[in-house]
Write a sequence for this structure.
């Protein structure tokens, strides 16, 4: 708008511009530039405020992610502990399996109770029939 008034001044004065005309023209130009500069500064201020808000939100997100990372570190530590415990249990289970195999082998060599009773009664009958007494050896 200010530029239109400047051109009107020039159109009215058909002669050579005077110093007063030049002052008015440059004054109007300075006001126009000043208003544009003010608008630019307002835009910059609004953008700066928006960036400050975004920076605050990013700081909040950063704190949140740091908290999540700390919790994840704790979970990883617990998982490592569980993995160690499972490894230890696996080793112990192998030892138990080996010991069970040894016991099974020993039991196979021994006679069961029913078989022992049957053999004992047979030996007693033989002793009675033969009239002898057999002694047990170990």
């Amino acid at each position: 708008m200010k530029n239109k008034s400047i051109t009107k001044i020039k159109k009215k004065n058909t002669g050579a511009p005077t110093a007063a005309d030049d002052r008015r023209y440059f004054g109007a130009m300075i006001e126009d530039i000043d208003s544009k500069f003010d608008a630019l500064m307002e835009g910059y201020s609004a953008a700066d405020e928006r960036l400050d808000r975004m920076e605050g939100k990013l700081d909040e997100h950063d704190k949140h992610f740091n908290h999540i990372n700390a919790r994840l570190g704790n979970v990883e530590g617990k998982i490592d502990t569980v993995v160690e415990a499972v490894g230890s249990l696996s080793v112990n289970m192998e030892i138990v399996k080996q010991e069970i195999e040894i016991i099974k082998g020993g039991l196979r060599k021994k006679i069961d109770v029913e078989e022992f009773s049957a053999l004992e009664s047979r030996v007693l009958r033989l002793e009675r029939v033969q009239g002898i007494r057999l002694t047990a050896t170990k």
Notes: The chain has one domain: 2-130. The chain has a mean pLDDT of 86.
